[in-house]
Specification:
Strand content: 5-15%
Structural class: alpha+beta
Helix content: over 70%
Number of helices: 11
Shape: rod-shaped
Radius of gyration: 58 Å
Number of strands: 7
Distance between the termini: 76 Å
Strand order of the largest sheet: 2-3-1-6-7
Largest sheet: 5 strands, mixed
Oligomer: single chain
Order of helices and strands: HHHHHHHEHHEEHEEEHE
């Protein structure tokens, strides 16, 4: 599967999880809203039933005041209460239309309320007549306690009605709280789930995208520095894996070409040793680290009678002599010594960490011994000898050009001595 398809699948999965969770929370919230509305509805029913009973009481209070005082001012709260009783009853009836049980209870309450209000209306009418007989009749009706019985029955039925609603309210409250608690738990669980998804996405994207990019950047930096890039472990078969494979192949090619160019730029193309352009900076650096206990030796080498050899046998043989000379010099020095072709038939060796002059003597004696055996080229045998001059730092100079000049001067001194010899500049200062 391609990386693009993997990312699309990952993002689609996260999107679906978010959408599904949002939809579930939405549905749960809608259910919670419905349960909350049911709770509010039941509260409204209870409030209206209580107001209904209070208004019946207010009507009775107004009626009693009028009977006792015949003051028309008591009729105002009486009539107001009658109007409110009708309004509250209609409201309760409307609120409980879908509840047959409560509708039956309301029917009974309605009948009792009608009887109570009829009793109140009769007494008020009798008092309004103003005759002694009518007044006595009204009092007689009140003394029968018929109205009190109606009120007690109304109160009992309203209490029954309210108890039914309270039981319902308790259940509705429990359902609503359960819904809220479930939503809270659900959302609480979604937080770690989303965190896990985000962490997974971060690790996945890092592993599939940013980690390979980091490797590419690191290898690019190594290439820029001329270092060999690390081997890339490629396990994926997507676009990034393809890029990594192509980059690994390209970086190997670039490194090989760069290494080849660097080698060609710093080494002599014929003999393979370092060339003259590398000598100056290397010698400058080596001088900065030398001391009396760790001397630096510049060894200047010249092939004796090389021009005559070239003229006598041609340049092909001369080149073979140079190549073989470079091999023998290189094989006779230490691993940390550097060999340079200075020009033509001249070579220079930079040797570090020389404690005693005798160490130089031993090294050059070993080098000259490598040329005791003749050079054999097909049917041609040549005896090659060297003239070697040596200058040391800090003994003779701390200037790189001066050291080369002194070593060259010592080499010419050696040329006037034996055929295969060396000379250390100012040699009379050497110790044992």
């Amino acid at each position: 599967m391609s990386l693009r398809a993997k990312f699309i699948l990952l993002l689609s999965s996260i999107f679906l999880v978010v959408v599904a969770n949002t939809f579930i929370i939405y549905v749960l919230d809608k259910q919670g809203q419905a349960k909350l509305e049911a709770v509010i509805h039941t509260h409204d029913v209870l409030d209206e039933s209580e107001k209904l009973y209070n208004q019946i009481t207010n009507a009775e209070t107004g009626q009693r005041g009028y009977l006792l005082t015949q003051d028309l001012n008591y009729l105002e709260p009486y009539y107001t209460a009658l109007e409110q009783v009708k309004q509250h009853f209609l409201t309760i009836n409307k609120l409980t239309l879908n509840n047959p049980e409560q509708q039956d209870t309301l029917t009974e309450i309605d009948e009792l309320v009608d009887k109570k209000l009829a009793e109140l209306a009769l007494t008020v009418t009798l008092v309004m007549q103003g005759t002694p007989y009518a007044l006595e009749e009204a009092k007689a009706i009140v003394l029968t306690d018929e109205g009190k019985k109606y009120m007690d029955q109304i109160r009992e039925h309203i209490l029954l009605f309210q108890n039914t609603e309270l039981a319902k309210l308790e259940q509705q409250n429990a359902d609503y709280q359960k819904n809220r608690l479930f939503i809270t738990h659900f959302v609480t669980l979604q937080i770690p789930l989303m965190l896990i998804l985000l962490v997974f996405c971060a690790f996945y994207i890092n592993a599939k995208l940013f980690k390979p990019l980091k490797l590419l950047i690191q290898n690019t930096d190594q290439l820029e520095k001329g270092e060999k890039p690390k081997t890339l472990t490629i396990s994926s078969h997507d676009e990034i894996g393809y890029v990594l494979k192509r980059f690994a192949r390209m970086s190997d090619i670039v490194y090989e070409r760069t290494s080849k160019l660097n080698f060609q730029a710093s080494h002599d193309h014929l003999t393979g040793v370092l060339n003259r352009t590398e000598l100056k900076p290397a010698l400058k650096q080596a001088i900065t680290t030398c001391s009396e206990d760790n001397k630096l030796a510049v060894i200047f080498i010249d092939i004796n009678k090389f021009k005559q050899l070239n003229d006598e046998y041609d340049h092909l043989i001369g080149d073979q002599v140079l190549i073989e000379t470079a091999k023998r010099i290189t094989s006779s020095v230490r691993a940390d010594d550097d060999v340079y072709r200075y020009g033509g038939d001249e070579f220079v060796i930079i040797t570090n960490n020389i404690a005693k002059y005798r160490h130089i003597n031993a090294m050059i004696t070993h080098l000259l011994a490598r040329f005791d055996n003749p050079f054999v080229f097909e049917q041609l045998t040549l005896n090659i000898s060297l003239s070697i001059g040596v200058a040391l730092a800090p003994d003779h100079s701390l200037d790189h050009q001066e050291l080369l000049r002194l070593a060259d001067q010592a080499m010419y001194h050696a040329k006037h001595e034996l055929k295969n010899s060396y000379h250390i500049y100012n040699n009379h200062n050497q110790d044992d």
